[in-house]
């Protein structure tokens, strides 16, 4: 569905009909009306209930048809069997947007699913923006609109939140209340029959009241659309998300929750990375980061200055920095001189700057003034433990004063509870994020620096790779015609050639003598590989011999390979063997693969060959089409990358050659959604270049 | 130093002298006196100050010599230059224990270090229990003793805390106050000139008031002693620790903090594992776990039942369970029947049991009653979000009621802030740990289950391995005599034989013709390996040829190897080559190694051969001597273990053969602390057995 621009009738309605408004204070149809009234919404509210009368001093309209004017937004709080009819009446009455609070649809099984499909169809036909069903509602603090069934009231602020879980929303509102975090918009997506996370994201991206977007998702409906939208939004403001159902246990729980399929975690994580979304794996981090992004500028470098009155937390901060890839900046000589003068002799003027336990606010102030001017650091973290000498409120004030003139972001970590709380509250009011432990503060700073990197990255270059698409198309058609789903080797190699992948010269031969003749033509050394339509992996039958140097070697290998294959897989018909020129002998072996993810489309993966990559999960993923930046990232992201870069004095391999292959495969995946899976395994790569020695293609 | 039994005069003094007591309320010499008085200590307190008079209504003694009776404990709060003299006077006066609050010693450089050494020497000679210097003091809530300079007062409880960071203590006291966590003992270790973490741990292990011990350490002084002590203590009660300075950045910060050397992180982590200590990597987890251990019994299985009124948090809980290795138990049929009856149709009766957003307390109660009786789960986690229908206090009460008769541990996670706080407070008072997010709750449950596994593990069997120690000793002596630090191959193999390691038959030969003759004697196939005292690794010069099948192969290989070595390392003298019988060809290659850690002694490591293990850090460590359990753990702990167990239908390798080799190496490391490093690389292992094909030994 193409929703109206910015979901305007949903977020900024001039009038609202509450269908199912109730007099009974415990009913949702009363709670939502009460929220609308008390939050100070200034448009017109029409409670609709056949009983008529008055609720909360508002005159009740006894049917939708009797509404005096078409409302912008209709909210439905009815038993599920009455929802569709109410939607139809609202459509008749010309509403622009409908929010369905009622539950009992897709999440409850087949009947509910079908009902929900009818609602979605109706909304589509009538061009109505539909939120829900099974939504907790929405909030727009800018116009005092609280159309939710939650009990806590958010204050106005610059964070927008959207969530696929309704009950979670109520927890978050309550939490935000206690932490004096304010929201701009608040949307409970519900079952997403109408508008999706991408629609909401787009709208929030354009919302001038929103500085940071945070979201909770269990599933993504149209992955490619979401990716495109998110890419645009993250150029404008940070998007922080948590995706639940990332493990098998979680995915099982998800499908019984909203009836959605959790989808592949690697695909969504790749999508988030490519879209510049900051993904976190727990709720606490979601809020820790939101607070930092909402209140402080982005650090423009990875160097952090830590000021502390306690050595221990300073060390923990240093540990945490290294874990997330931040550095502790060495202060400039000028700063060192200032600190030497300002601090007692036993203080540590290097970073972490330990101004020791008897520090009062003035010592913090002098230190902060020196550090604020030091260009060696890009962000400041101030740690305080409530020692006997600590002046907590005064220190908070010193931090606030420093922040006023300092262009770097400043963060605080006040450790403790009741004694430090006046300082913490003062800091939070002044927009300095204050954490209870060093680790979350440093995680937040690291995320902000990552986002800075995203915003300042080179303009993304999408590459359209040269290829003979027609030839590949014809080859696939031909294969499909003869009823195969996996392409025979020769056809796979034709497609490789069409995409200009570097393949070795290869001959398919039927006898050992043919093999010897082929080897002579190709030139020694050669490789010999068994071919059978019944084998999914040659290594299972030990069906490969490498580096054969002579006719005798080839004959011996032929005998060894074919007899091993027959012994291990008596059911497999042996077509023959391939004779190939050998690739570089001391090369690294890598694997390039793509599959089609049901939610996100073509998913390209990269790893070193060998069983360890899979066992250790050292595989990187990106969604096609890949940009130049993506291919560089996917190669460098695997933990084994040092082996390609040249560990222990070895020569680095030709990374550009790998990147070209990745781009070709990305192009192939994009050109042919009906190639279900393609695998180059292995690709040999050394300092000179790369060679694709085997390719498998499966069509859908 | 051997401290007195249970540090009795320190924790339970009948009388205390405060040397450096002060009238000025801002001075530490006043704060500590004031803490002693107000905490309700009932022994005698002697303020000592040459000025005499009265402080806080106590008569001041004007010198240590003038004390009417020898106090059990002397506390020194003087400028550092006066500390040693005061200690001498206290020793004259026959004190049993001294706590030095004053700072300015080891942590400030050489002068301070030497002063501290004199203090330590004095304490040792006079058999005085010395805490500090640079200590914040200590607390024993059992007798109302608060001998600290911190400002918050801990309530009585069952958690004991010790810390190497003083200022951190003040943060923790303040934090505990806010969370109504009580302490039994509280010790700030300071610079550890006298008693160490091991002494304190031993004393807390025997303390009947202490149920859980938590600690913060930056360095461990005598690793083996600490390990032995901790092993005994963890049999009695859980010990949870955080070690700071685990990264390079952190270690640098540590050495400038307490002047201690952080030491190798892998060694301390191995020690913690072998001692049954639960290691956490951030402060928040330290407290999250302490709370759980202090209040709930241990879960006796990995199966968790999750009850929730909100799907989203249920999914996050499921994700978190899988991440830490807990299972979501499938409820028994009986429970499913009960739940079907008790819950509305759209609830999910499987685990997580989602009783949906309109649940009130009675629905929680019915569900909990069913789950409490179900033997399929070993622990229960109750999630609540403050929905419009949630009855927060009543739900808390239902959980408390269930816990009264339920033998399984019960944990709660109430999400939100102000609305849920009355429920959270009620739960905490009743001893039900209540968290703000699902993840920390599940981490705590997982840690408790790990501790259950530790307590119920089979009795640890230390293995003394058969070996010819005399022969090995003689070989090492001989090598040392000729001035070598690395043993020549033949000598290394002699030691391998003395420890009954499975080594291949090997001949050292000088010419290619000798090699052919040796190969004939050993039987083909053979391996050929270059020997030179100047090469630290054969792979650098490509100096190994494997699987040689014929005299021609041997001659070719000889030429290839020696010429490559000469070309790549013209400076290396080539002694000759080794001819060896080949190990199994399709074997996995593993590496067994030990080094001597300066703090913890012999450290054995295990990994797969190949560059990936190092690059990916997939190496496991344990301290020698290894128990049978240790060798099983060290082999199974590497992430690549599936490759040894037989991934993808392969036969598993002979794990017992690897374990025997590890035990032999552990024995060797224990027998010879002057073997600085030993490496078996590679050890070939297949389904049949293992073969050590190369061994390098360096002596110190």
Automatic annotation (TrEMBL), chains A, B:
Residues annotated as domain ATP-grasp: 493-529
Alphabetical keyword list: ATP-binding, Ligase, Nucleotide-binding
Record bears the keyword Transport: no
InterPro entries found in the cross-reference section: Acyl-CoA_Synth/Transferase, ATP-grasp, ATP_grasp_subdomain_1, CoA-bd, Ligase_CoA_dom, NAD(P)-bd_dom_sf, Succ_CoA_lig_flav_dom, Succinyl-CoA_synth-like
UniProt superkingdom: Bacteria
Pfam families: ATP-grasp_5 (PF13549), CoA_binding_2 (PF13380), Ligase_CoA_2 (PF19045), Succ_CoA_lig (PF13607)
Database matches in PANTHER family: 3-HYDROXYPROPIONATE--COA LIGASE [ADP-FORMING] (PTHR43334:SF1), ACETATE--COA LIGASE [ADP-FORMING] (PTHR43334)
Name of the molecule in the record: Acyl-CoA synthetase
Species this protein is from: Pseudodesulfovibrio sediminis
Taxonomy of the source species: Bacteria, Pseudomonadati, Thermodesulfobacteriota, Desulfovibrionia, Desulfovibrionales
